[in-house]
Amino acid sequence: MAEALALLAEMAAACDLAAQGVPAAGFDLSTLSDGARQVLADTLGQGEVSMKIRGIPAVMVQESVFTGVWLQKGAGIDRVDVAQVPALALARAHVPHRPAVGVLARRVAGLANAPSILAEILDHSLNHRPGDMAHVVNLSLLPHTPEDLDWLAEALGEGAVTVLSRGYGNCRVMATAQPLVWRVQFYNSMDALILDTYEVTSMPEVTLAAAEDLRDSATRIRDVIEAIR
């Protein structure tokens, strides 16, 4: 119990630092005793956001019930990151699973607005700078055909990171193979697509733990520590 509580206290401190913009803090869980590991598992639980990160090794990420505290599992990986988003998700996001071919995507009958949409996305991808606001292309408000969507998917390829946020509805965030370009889709409680966008940004805001959420996580973790003691 003492081993688990000490690690939780370090995580609470890391949440405070992350809220101030300090880079991600990582905690290796592989050396913990079985008892401490069980206490942590029971305490951290499972939150609403999960990630699949392709690569070697492939990594599954599950946000805990404390926003910004991320559990990561993979071959040789058993750790927790405290950050707005796990560092590995940023590092691998646009590593191609299926390459982006851009304007070389095969033209098919039925294309309408996809080439002009792609030109806008590529322009912002090439010219986006750190600190810039996300550029959002709202497909739900643009006239397009099914062939347009298929062509854009082929042109932009598929990256290494997929995020699922569950709540009243679901939000699915998929990295493309084009740098800084993400597909963000919102579904209602009936699993009907209600908002379909491409975002040009380092990481869509919907996946990020906000500073106030991280501060709240620090407070809640300390409350849990006191309750356990």
Would you kindly provide a written description of the structure presented here, covering whatever features stand out?
The chain has helices at residues 2-19, 34-44, 87-92, 114-127, 146-156, 211-228, and strands spanning 25-28, 49-53, 59-63, 69-74, 77-82, 135-138, 161-166, 170-175, 181-187, 193-200. The protein has 229 residues and is α+β, with helices and mostly antiparallel strands. It has 2 domains: 2-84 and 209-228, Ribosomal Protein S8, Chain: A, domain 1, CATH 3.30.1370.140; 102-207, HupH hydrogenase expression protein, C-terminal domain (Ribosomal Protein S8, Chain: A, domain 1), CATH 3.30.1370. The chain has a 10-stranded antiparallel β-sheet. A hairpin with a 5-residue loop joins strand 2 (49-53) and strand 3. The radius of gyration is 20 Å and the shape is elongated. The relative contact order is 0.18.
What would you say about this model in short?
This protein is α+β, with helices and mostly antiparallel strands and 229 residues long. It has two domains: 2-84 and 209-228, 2-Layer Sandwich (Ribosomal Protein S8, Chain: A, domain 1); 102-207, Ribosomal Protein S8, Chain: A, domain 1 (2-Layer Sandwich), CATH 3.30.1370.140. It contains six helices and ten strands, in the order H-E-H-E-E-E-E-H-H-E-H-E-E-E-E-H.
Summarize the SSE layout with pairings.
Layout: H1 2-19, E1 25-28, H2 34-44, E2 49-53, E3 59-63, E4 69-74, E5 77-82, H3 87-92, H4 114-127, E6 135-138, H5 146-156, E7 161-166, E8 170-175, E9 181-187, E10 193-200, H6 211-228
Antiparallel strand pairs: 1-5, 2-3, 2-7, 3-4, 4-5, 6-10, 7-8, 8-9, 9-10
Helix pairs in contact: 1-2, 1-6, 4-5
